[in-house]
Amino acid sequence: MPYRQENKYWHIITQYLGTILDMLNDPVIIIDKDGTIIYVNEGYELQVGVKREHVLGRNIKKSYPNDKLLETLRTGEAIQKEEHYNDTLGYNIVASFLPIKDQNGQIIAVAGIGTTPPVYKLNVRLSPIHSGKQERASQKITKKNLPASFNSIIGESPKLINCLGLAAQVAKSEATVMLRGETGVGKELFARAIHNTSERCKYPFIAVNCAAIPENLIESELFGYTAGAFTGARSSGKTGKIEMAHKGTLFLDEIGDLSQNTQVKLLRFTQERYIEKIGGNEQIPIDVRIVTATNKNLEQMVQQGEFRNDLYYRLNVIPIHIPPLKERPEDIGILAHYFLDYYEKKYNKKMCFSLEAIEYLQDYYWPGNIRELKNIIEHAVIICSGDTVSSNHLNLNLTNQLNIQDSSILDLNHAIEYTEKTIIQKALEKSYNNKSKAIKYLGISRGAFYSKIKKYKLTLD
User: Fold this and answer.
1) Per residue in 144-168, pLDDT tens?
2) Which of 233, 169, 245, 263 is CA-nearest to residue 208?
3) Which of 294, 207, 282, 192 is nearest to 250 (CA)?
């Protein structure tokens, strides 16, 4: 602008630009024309939880090819106040991106500044002047309004939000729900949220892990027994889980592990809605909503005669398929920071993730889903003696990354070589071909490292 060019103090003012940007709470980042990070402010350090010396000089093209900074670099067009998920931060932001051009109009850098949607929306509401377009954008952001009971389920990915929306929709009904999904995706959290949103929320939520109870005890656990019903029975008898859930919700986890005998008795209860305790003849009416969960293929079990088809149809009224963590990459960073905050408080520590650690987590396959992520973060917080959790503190099982399709790999010797080569390649990838870092990841000597590089004909370029 002419005023800046004519002002004789402008060159002095620009010397304070870095200090001025550090006064902002919002993250600011600048990349050069090659995609290399050349500046971040203190707001970025605080929001991401990574010190700037670990960020500067890193190229974002490989790790974050879809980043809005790169989009602006490619198109040369500014982006104004657009909400999107940020891979680095691990949550949604409202951000603006500005191409920086030289006197010839060539892009030499891109600057980005962002804020969280709640802060942005607050600013819009407080602003005395805002257009109808801004109002419509604000309404669009707040369109999803899930019940408070679902706040305990962390994540913002579209797949998860759709799943939560369905769960919230059926929660107020009396329909039987079957939660489907891999181990560790949070099926019990869903069940509790459904209960707490329902009209039965003032009454008990009783959870039963069908796989954890021995077959000879499952019937007494579910239905209870009378005094003296069998040798070793309590003199006062026992109230079963179904009766304990009266007027509330009965959550039957791992329903696919029930024996055929117990399936028959559960089917009868779902039909008649009364129970008979072991050793008793009294028919006790029970008013309960049933929510079940399984990680098994019940349809296949029905075809093979391992699960009763009549019980399957009774329980599978409203199936809800919870996506595994590998299908929710947007949520990995969010969950990692959530668990880090939790275990910081539990173990009275204060720490953050290195950018490399976040990338490590993002690239992992997560066969154990959220439960595995939670355990890995706790392990990292415990063993980390400093204030930064690095990739070295993350106890990831890299062998779970293998995707064995070649039948020759089933040969043990070939399998060992395949595994070794894959893990070395992964270490090189994670270290950006930094040999010293790769050796540190692998935990082997330098001589052994180069010996294996030669054996597997791996390139270090």
Assistant:
1) 678 989 988 998 888 898 899 999 9
2) 245
3) 207
Give dist(CA 90, CA 371) in Å, integer. 18
Q: Are 196 and 219 in contact (CB under 8 A)?
A: no
State the pTM of this model: 0.61
Q: What is the largest CA-CA distance in the chain?
A: 99
Q: How far is CA 144 from CA 74, 147, 162, 166, 331, in A?
A: 32, 10, 10, 12, 17
List, in order, residues 6 or more apart from 244 with CB less than 8 Å away.
204, 206
List beta partners, residue 205: 249
**In the structure encoding, which two tokens stand for residue 65, read together?**
């090819």
Take residue 405 and report the two structure tokens written for it. 């399709």
Q: How far, rounded to the nearest angstrom, does the alpha carbon of residue 447 sit from its chain's CA centroid?
A: 39
Average pLDDT, the chain: 81
Listed in order, strand segments (DSSP E) in 27-86 are 28-32, 37-40, 79-86
Query: Which of 389, 388, 404, 329 has its CA nearest to residue 364?
Result: 329
pLDDT of residue 447: 82
367 Cα distance to chain centroid = 12
DSSP symbol at 240: -
Element (H, E) at 193: helix 187-197
Instruction: State the DSSP H helix or E strand holding residue 379, giving kind and residue range, or none if neither.
Output: helix 369-383
Distance CA(368)–CA(217), nearest Å, equals 28
Q: Which two tokens stand for residue 34?
A: 């090659």
Domains and CATH numbers, the chain: 2-121 (3.30.450.20), 148-321 (3.40.50.300), 325-396 (1.10.8.60), 401-455 (1.10.10)
Report the alpha-carbon distance of residue 196 to residue 151 in Å, rounded: 11
Residue 245 DSSP code: T
